[in-house]
Amino acid sequence: MARGFLSKGNKVKVTVFFRFRQLRRPELGAEILDRVTQQLADIAVVEFRTRGMEGRQMTMILAPNGSAEKAKRAHAASEAAEAEVAAPKVLAAAPVTVPVAEPEAQAEKADA
């Protein structure tokens, strides 16, 4: 799921929550964050990571690296091109003047 967000150019926040006896083993949480970093190394870089525990949790923010941002721009460009093809083109029309008959002239036509 994180790979999908990163490929679209979004950031991902990864949080490991500790409960009860898990609080005594923060190194296991650090290993989990390291594994996530390794698995997403091809499309993401670590923007922020807590040095230790923040209360009962460890947090890390992943940002897309340059290749993911290029993919996002290419995706946006292709969507724009598709929208342009699908949308009907509106051409600017020249102003049209419609002659308006005077009320007296309309009354004369009605009487005739």
How would you explain this protein's 3D organization?
The chain has four helices and three strands, in the order H-E-H-E-E-H-H. It has a domain at 2-67: 2-Layer Sandwich (Translation Initiation Factor IF3), CATH 3.30.110. A hairpin with a 7-residue loop joins strand 2 (44-49) and strand 3 (57-64). Strands 1-3-2 form a three-stranded antiparallel beta sheet. It has helices at residues 2-7, 26-39, 66-86, 103-111, and strands at residues 12-17, 44-49, 57-64. It is an alpha+beta fold and 112 residues long. 45% of the residues lie in helices and 18% in strands.
The tally of strands reads 3
Q: What is the beta-strand fraction?
A: 15-25%
Walk across the major sheet and give the strand order.
1-3-2
Structural class computed from helices and strand pairing: alpha+beta
Described by strand count, sense and barrel closure, the largest sheet is:
3 strands, antiparallel
CATH architecture classification of the domain at 2-67:
2-Layer Sandwich
General shape:
elongated
Mean of residue pLDDT values: 79
Distance between the termini: 79 Å
What level of helicity do the residues show?
Answer: 40-55%
**The CATH topology of the domain at 2-67, please?**
Translation Initiation Factor IF3
Q: Uncertain spans, ≥5 residues at pLDDT below 50?
A: none
Question: So what's the oligomer here?
Answer: single chain
Which CATH class of the domain at 2-67 is shown? Alpha Beta
Number of helices: 4
**Rg (C-alpha, Å):** 31 Å
Give the CATH superfamily of the domain at 2-67.
Answer: Translation initiation factor 3 (IF-3), C-terminal domain
Query: Helix and strand string, N-terminal first?
Result: HEHEEHH
